[in-house]
Input
Amino acid sequence: MRGSRLILASASPRRREMLERVGLLLDVRPADVDETEHPGEDPAAYVLRVARAKADAVPREAGAWVLAADTTVTIDGAILAKAATPDEAAAMLRRLSGRVHQVMTGFVVAGDAHRHEAVVTTDVEMVELDEPGLADYVASGDWRDKAGAYAIQGVAAALVREVRGSVTNVIGLPLAEVLAALRELGGPAPRFAAGGLP
Output
């Protein structure tokens, strides 16, 4: 119902900021789940599985709504998770250089009697990276804690030539799709306009 809080099962400051910006009242409860990729797992199946695990892991009172999401970068069917070292980040970016890859977010919206699950995919084309530019970017540290070793809302925006699909999905949450799911299920509504979304 309008004005009720939404439990966000995520520690991501980017997801929190996007949802608060449209006026949703949040109760942030990060979910501690195993995000290890299963051998041979399809990227779409992976992000949805992790999102489901997050949604089911957080405590939720009767009448409350929960939103959980997981985002990854994929190319050639491979999942590019968060790089652990500068060398790993550089290797990921060389793989993405000059090519189109996909950013996938699986999300779950759940209430007492309703549940919506979806995967949203955005195509992202990167510029051709030369070694000096790549070295400068890796040295900046902007790749840390980012799937695919970049974040479009950071300095890596200069590395992206084109985005086809949801831009907020690349940031970590397909906002329009999430709000549509909440509206369809009768969940919490944003307050950025009188009467909420049309």
About this structure: The CA atoms of residues 75 and 95 lie 8 Å apart.
